[in-house]
């Protein structure tokens, strides 16, 4: 199994402000599959994604990614894990404002000895004509495409997406979902998406629904609908 999450628990705060956010979460994901984590606001979706991404530590349980038990890693090893295994996409792109599209992607290209071809990637993501523009000269969808290219250039094994379409309108959201699907198909990248958009559950291989820090539903889709055909 590519990803195995076993009985993880996570709390924030102490005393009266103590909140148990993840209460024994277990799940798995096969290599090369797409998965969505759904659930109400505050249910623990981002906390789970951040734990898998090594951005936050869990209190109990284990998270094994491609054979690596990340809950056991020291801080320096966690940095290497994020560098060597992961790509991140967030709701608000987080591009470097004074770098062009191409330069934003290059920042991550230098993180690996075997990056994907920058120009092919720009082409695949429709960024070639925008490569010399700065983020403020781009639409939200174009900025997110740049963020996807930046996450992908180091050819990560796992792409973690926290509300990747949260700041985009319908058309641009769909364009980004089609791209994520293409990335999964063309590069075989395992993709884990946190979103409030329940339509996405029809285009992914696996659906996890969280409520109050526990998994309520966890199932595989028998059939999946192409992202371009989703309606919401
Ligand atoms: N660093 C933190 N310190 C304290 N509490 C936190 C921290 N991060 C998250 N929480 C709390 O943990 C709970 C779960 O947060 P999380 O962001 O995982 O939820 P979510 O399901 O992703 O919500 P949303 O859909 O609104 O983004 C919330 O009650 C939140 O306030």
UniProtKB/TrEMBL annotation:
Give the superkingdom in one word. Bacteria
Q: Which GO terms describe its molecular function?
A: ATP binding; ATP hydrolysis activity; transmembrane transporter activity
* Alphabetically ordered keywords of this record: ATP-binding, Hydrolase, Nucleotide-binding, Transport
Is ATP-binding a UniProt keyword of this protein? yes
Cite the InterPro entries for this sequence.
AAA+_ATPase, ABC_transporter-like_ATP-bd, MacB-like_ATP-bd, P-loop_NTPase
One of the record's GO cellular component terms:
membrane protein complex
Give EC number(s), comma-separated: 3.6.3.28
> Which stretches make up the ABC transporter domain?
3-230
Report the enzyme's class at the first EC level: hydrolase
- SUPFAM superfamilies noted in UniProt: P-loop containing nucleoside triphosphate hydrolases (SSF52540)
Q: Which SMART domains does the entry mention?
A: AAA (SM00382)
Q: Is-annotated flag, keyword Transport?
A: yes
Query: Which Pfam families does this entry report, sorted A to Z?
Result: ABC_tran
What's the family?
Belongs to the ABC transporter superfamily.
What is the protein's given name? Phosphonate-transporting ATPase
Q: What organism is recorded for this protein? A: Syntrophobotulus glycolicus (strain DSM 8271 / FlGlyR)
Query: Highest lineage ranks of the organism?
Result: Bacteria, Bacillati, Bacillota, Clostridia, Eubacteriales
């Amino acid at each position: 199994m590519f990803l195995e999450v076993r009985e993880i628990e996570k709390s924030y705060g102490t005393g009266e402000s103590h909140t148990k956010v993840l209460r024994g979460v277990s799940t798995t994901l096969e290599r090369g599959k797409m998965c969505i984590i759904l659930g109400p606001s505050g249910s623990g979706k981002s906390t789970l994604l951040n734990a898998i991404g090594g951005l936050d530590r869990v209190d109990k349980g284990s998270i094994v990614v491609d054979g690596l038990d990340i809950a056991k890693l020291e801080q320096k090893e966690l940095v290497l894990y994020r560098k060597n295994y992961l790509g991140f996409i967030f709701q608000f792109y987080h591009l470097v404002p004074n770098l062009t599209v191409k330069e934003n992607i290059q920042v991550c290209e230098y993180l690996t000895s075997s990056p994907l071809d920058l120009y092919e990637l720009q082409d695949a993501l429709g960024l070639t004509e925008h490569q010399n523009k700065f983020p403020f000269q781009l639409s939200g969808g174009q900025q997110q495409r740049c963020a996807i290219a930046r996450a992908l250039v180091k050819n990560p094994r796992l792409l973690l997406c926290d509300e990747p379409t949260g700041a985009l309108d319908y058309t641009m959201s769909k364009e980004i979902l089609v791209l994520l699907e293409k990335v999964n198909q063309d590069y075989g990248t395992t993709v884990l998406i946190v979103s409030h958009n329940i339509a996405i559950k029809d285009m992914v291989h696996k659906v996890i629904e969280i409520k109050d820090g526990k998994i309520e539903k966890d199932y595989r889709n028998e059939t999946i609908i192409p992202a371009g055909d989703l309606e919401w």
